[in-house]
Design brief:
2 copies of one chain form a homodimer.
Chain A: E1 12-23, E2 26-33, E3 43-44, E4 47-49, H1 56-65, E5 75-82, E6 93-102, E7 114-118, H2 129-146, H3 160-171, H4 177-186, E8 190-197, E9 207-212
Parallel strand pairs in A: 1-6
Antiparallel strand pairs in A: 1-2, 1-4, 2-3, 2-7, 5-6, 8-9
Chain A binds a DNA duplex (27 and 27 nucleotides) through residues 159-161, 176-179, 181-183, 186, 199-208, 225-227, 229-230.
DNA sequence: ACAAAAGTGTTGTTACTACACCCATGG
DNA sequence: CCATGGGTGTAGTAACAACACTTTTGT
């Protein structure tokens, strides 16, 4: 809270986005190939500097608008602020990262210098962006367990097999469609939409179509333990 | 990632700390009374501007050192970054807030212009600091349920009645010492230390003394639901 | 003996996992 | 009629809440 007699130096501040989408059954992150130094040719998170009169959230939405259609980002939340001085080799720069989720099936047109990369197999990344991506995945994994955040990775209507594939890609382990359905139904997170979806080429029973009841973030399992007394 | 031809304006950046301690059975937050405008006479979070070569975490620790003995802050974690332009009436300033926890029983000497205030009964707060305090309490409440974070609010050795009081103050509802003990024992979060503590003035069975097995933050209940397959 | 405080035992419940089994469709 | 994929039924279980009961102390 000190006031200054001389003007202190100020750090630059950028907003970054860790945008995830399940593509081809794999959790991918959107990365941008740097055209100039530092880290020329390496891959970095999309984003850019904060402008006056902007919040960090509007700033990252503005920067994303040039990479992805913003309407396709179904969920956006702040991940954290990275401030280690050596994170940028040339200047003093803080970065506030956001986690963004794009539903399965959409294929936003992205500029030629951006590409989706599997989180499990990241290329060489610029700055500390590799660890920021992993922090985003941890946040996503946690929230998949106790919230309805799956809505932001799933398409509008989906079969339970499709939803299971989304959860498996994000969580990195096998999920049972049978039990996933019961967990999400009991919590009132998903509901049947009343239609069925055509079977695969080799036949099979048509699958029921479900949807998330709400497409806004909600905590569905608020007190895992230590819940308040019942009456 | 735009590079600039003209130098853009930069926001100031402060680190703030939401420091909680259970005092007299109530969750308190450390606030500082502003001596000058804006918000003269109102209460604000301790903190200050970021200096070059500092991380946000070392910065807030440095600022706290003048208010609280840093060794008494048993846990510190980043809460988030607030960036709404109108949050400061006079200048463009971002604030990254940290959550700090001080164990029960310590009574750090604080400067005369700082004071502990019950979170349930906050005075008029400067800037957006009131909502930052409440965000800190929400973070704390969530983590009490699925981690060992209670170690940072509890003294080194404690009886289960004392620990229950700490949890009740932080959570805001009644907690059963009986069940709290079994939950934390089963998870391996606490252990008996082998001694007993003297009873109150009206007699009563002496209580066993427990301690947290680890005094570093650990997630003790990682997958509340959707846990990976057992084998 | 009795009050006070702490600890234990026991029952019931919920929300899961795991797995066997049943249903609908195409070839 | 069988392969394929989706759905249902059910048993087992871990982790908890609630509450009655017991133990250890002081007065």
């Amino acid at each position: 809270m000190a006031e200054f007699t001389t003007q202190p130096p100020l750090p630059a501040h950028v907003a970054l986005a860790v945008v995830f989408q399940v593509r081809a059954g794999v959790l991918d992150v959107l990365l941008w190939e740097r055209a100039r130094d530092p880290f020329r040719g390496m891959w970095s998170l999309p984003g850019g500097t904060l402008a006056p009169e902007e919040t960090l959230e509007t700033s990252i939405l503005r920067h994303l608008a040039t990479k992805v259609d913003v309407r396709e980002v179904a969920h956006l939340e702040q991940l954290g602020t990275w401030s280690e001085p050596p994170r940028h080799p040339e200047r003093w720069e803080l970065a506030t990262a956001y986690l963004g989720l794009v539903p399965l099936g959409l294929d936003p047109s992205v500029p030629p210098d951006t590409r989706w990369h599997p989180v499990e197999d990241l290329p060489a990344t610029a700055f500390d962006h590799g660890s920021i991506v992993l922090a985003g995945r941890e946040r996503l994994r946690g929230k998949l367990s106790y919230s309805n955040i799956g809505f932001a990775l799933a398409p509008d209507g989906f079969t339970l097999a499709e939803l299971r594939d989304v959860y498996e890609a994000a969580l990195g382990y096998e999920v049972s469609a049978t039990n996933l359905k019961r967990v999400l139904l009991r919590r009132g997170a998903i509901e049947p939409v009343g239609k069925t979806k055509a079977h695969g080429p080799a036949g099979g029973r048509p699958a029921e179509v479900y949807r998330f009841c709400s497409r806004r973030f909600e905590v569905t399992d608020p007190f895992a333990v230590l819940r308040p007394p019942t009456p």
